[in-house]
Design brief:
3-stranded antiparallel beta sheet; 3 helices; alpha+beta
Length: about 230
């Protein structure tokens, strides 16, 4: 789903942002092919930020039905392996598995050993790995002993040993990174050092530190409208 096929859900709309003078805005308002969505004026600048939508027929080669079919089919393929009790799956993402076995070497899954849509590409084997949170994991490659870590929302690399420290209860990792910030009102782009706090949380699953396992949330009695009266 992370290839060109997944772009089938693009909206057939083109939005343009322009800095224009007042007389340029008046001239633009006479154009039938454009619709002015918003005008942002500035106190210290002569020009204003004009947001327009192109009224011309746009052909971005996208299709919502095709996009829905692709994502639904991908979930069906992922679910087949996820429900297979013979596989020891440690982690699953939108387009990948982390498993104790090499899936494509198993007889019933050899047909998935290809690089086309729906296939599985072997990435490598970890001698040691850790999967903390969704899109937060890492490991040490068995062949090269090099490290690989991924932390969602953090651009720089994180040492694998630092992720291991987060297994201790109430531990947190304080990081920082340089991010770009756009100030549309001042027409500026700033580089700022921003903090990034990484720690375990129970936002999506219950975490048991003692057994290193997670469990899904279950609602014993879901009553959003409070229709069930306590007796």
């Amino acid at each position: 789903m992370n290839c060109l096929y997944g772009r089938m859900g693009l909206r057939q709309v083109i939005v343009k942002y322009s800095f224009l003078l007042n007389h340029e805005i008046e001239k633009l308002s006479m154009t039938e092919d454009l619709t002015i969505k918003d005008i942002i004026e500035f106190d210290k600048f002569d020009k204003s930020l004009v947001i327009t939508i192109d009224n011309k027929e746009v052909n971005l080669k996208s299709s919502v039905p095709i996009a829905a079919a692709i994502t639904a089919y991908a979930r069906m393929e992922l679910a087949t392996l996820l429900l297979d009790e013979s596989l020891d799956i440690l982690y699953i993402d939108t387009d990948s598995y982390k498993c104790k076995q090499k899936i494509t070497e198993l007889p019933k899954y050899k047909h998935l050993d290809h690089t086309d849509l729906g296939g599985l590409k072997y990435e490598g084997t970890f001698s040691e790995s850790l999967f903390l949170l969704p899109k937060v994991y890492g490991g040490i490659y068995k062949e090269s002993t090099s490290q690989f870590t991924k932390v969602k929302g953090f651009k720089d690399k994180v040492e694998f040993n630092l992720l291991k420290d987060l297994l201790m209860k109430n531990q947190e990792l304080k990081l920082s990174q340089i991010k770009w910030y756009r100030d549309m009102l001042k027409s500026e782009i700033k580089l700022m050092k921003t903090p990034y706090i990484l720690k375990l949380n129970d936002n999506k699953r219950l975490i048991d530190i003692k057994t290193f396992k997670t469990k899904p949330y279950h609602f014993v009695c879901y009553d959003p409208e409070n229709q069930i009266k306590n007796k």
